[in-house]
Amino acid sequence: MRKEKLNIALYQQDIVWEDPEVNYRKVEEAFASAVGDSPIDILVVPETFNTGFGDHMARQAEEPCGPTFEFALSMAKRYDALFVGTWTVKVGGVVYNRMYLVRPDGGFDVYDKAHTFRMSSEASQIGRGRHRVTVEWRGWRIKPAVCYDLRFPLWLRNTADWNYDILLVCANWPGSRYEAWRTLLRARAIENLSYAIGCNRVGRDSTGIDYAGCSAIVDYKGLALCELPPSLDSTNSLDRIITAELDITRLATFRSHWPFNLDFDSYNLA
């Protein structure tokens, strides 16, 4: 049965470099402080929230249901919510940057990042995912994506009969390109007539790269329901949680009044 409204809590995290235990504690404390006993349906953290994004991601890879999965499951159970984030896992000798969508009953779905970032070492050490994924949660359809995937509209294209209602993106998107992040997130929401959730990190990593955050929850018209401003001072980063409520009736009404989907171009996406 579909839930009329979904409550989202998104953590724009200043990730502690290659220290999973500290990052678990940060995530746990941040949600406890900001959410408390309020009803939440989806908890979202950034890409590679347990270690950060860098040259040693393959070395940091875990088994598919290793300690970070166990932490994610504990959070899902605590809040009776879907917990969403990415970390690296090793499967059959290949390391993937894998998004997990973990349910409180212990079930889960996964999406392997398809567009590994060729301008970094990620493309040489991380395997590319080959499959689009759509996940259902409380009657809503969710399209997972990871960081660089956001630049590829065909990969994220909705279908004329509404393959998804929410585009959910976890990222480590550098501050030097934060306007691209903001623009692309809105473009994907507008062109696919869907909500878009973009959870980016803040702070500075050990290589000196700064992250501006600009995490946002955007509606189907490209308007931000909640958004953090650029965090350009790495010594005082906006490490915090934002929340918003998504409404399926408003989405359906907009789609029925403006049926742009009937004129979607057809592409061979094989």
What does this structure look like?
The chain is an alpha/beta fold and 270 residues long. It has a single domain, classed as Nitrilase/N-carbamoyl-D-aminoacid amidohydrolase. The chain contains five helices and 14 strands. A six-stranded mixed sheet has the order 5-4-3-2-1-14. It has a six-stranded mixed sheet with strand order 6-7-8-9-12-13, covered by helices on one side. A two-stranded antiparallel sheet has the order 10-11. Strand 4 and strand 5 form a beta hairpin. The longest helix is centred in the N-terminal third of the chain and has 15 residues. The radius of gyration is 17 Å and the shape is globular.
Note poorly predicted spans: none
Proportion of residues in helical segments: 10-25%
Spatial separation of the terminal alpha carbons: 32 Å
Just name the CATH architecture.
Answer: 4-Layer Sandwich
Q: Tell me what portion of residues adopts beta-strand conformation.
A: 25-35%
Strand order of the largest sheet: 5-4-3-2-1-14
Number of distinct helices: 5
The CATH superfamily bears the name Carbon-nitrogen hydrolase
